[in-house]
Amino acid sequence: MKLLLLSNSTAPGHAYLEHAREAIARHLAGVRELLFVPYALADHDGYTEKVAAFMAELGIAVRGVHTGDPRRLAADAQAVFTGGGNSFRLLRALHTTGLVEALRDRVAAGAPYMGSSAGTNMACPTLRTTNDMPIVQPPSFEALALVPFQINPHYLDPAPESAHMGETREERLTQFLEENAVPVLGLREGTWLVREDDRLELAGVAAGARLFRRGAAPEEYGPGTDLSELLTAPARFDVGPATA
């Protein structure tokens, strides 16, 4: 399995996807046509054109999965990119078009998968660690399960000087772990994960990522860290607070 999972698609001072250009070029080396999944935004054609403009610089043609039979296009895809936007809208579309199973099967067969933000959320077993507002209701929170752990893209650290009185991201993930026993990796902006079969590595900017586990203090990791053990870590959902 070959995955590139970006926390974000746009970084300050960079054009769309430009901050991860080298990683994307390596990930898609040899790919001639990319299948793009634009369902996280309402304007599917415009979103596809934006991705096509970036990929053209790498010599890669882009086709939107919405332009034909989604399942057939997925089955024939040389590589897949699922873009960011609203994760609930995206997951609903994946279920209603039959793409949950089709994409899962194609990536398992060897097609490179790339996700950013909501597209990275889709690589997890479930949607439950997203930051998005549920603007629509998907039939299930079940996602692609390309990795067996959860990811929180755009992870933000608590800001002690802030007057904001709402929950921090850390508090929300801690609440998730009160009910579920599965690792959650908080990917900060400018970071990403690279999976090559049984190896998983953290890459990107020095800020790195924060790993949350049930019953343990969060752990910090920097770029270059081998996180392969997450691919075999036990994952139990809906176990409740009484079975820690």
Write up what this structure looks like.
There is one protein chain. The chain has 244 residues and is α/β, with parallel strands linked by helices. 25% of the residues lie in helices and 19% in strands. The chain has helices spanning 21-27, 44-56, 70-76, 87-96, 99-108, 118-121, 169-179, and strands at 2-6, 33-37, 61-64, 80-82, 113-116, 150-152, 184-187, 191-196, 199-204, 209-212, 219-221. A 7-stranded mixed β-sheet has the order 3-2-4-5-1-8-9. Strands 6-7-10-11 form a 4-stranded mixed β-sheet. Helix 3 packs parallel to helix 5. The longest helix is centred in the N-terminal third of the chain and has 13 residues, at 44-56. The protein is globular, with a radius of gyration of 17 Å.
